[in-house]
Amino acid sequence: MFTKKSESTDSSSPSAAKAASSAPAKPTGTASAPAASAANKPKPAPSVLSSDLTVTGNLTTSGDIQIEGKVEGDIRAHLLTVGDSATVKGECVADDVVVNGRVVGCVRGLKVRLTASARVEGDIIHKTIAIESGAHFEGSVKREDDPLAGKKKSS
Question: Is this structure's pTM higher than 0.85?
Answer without folding.
Answer: no
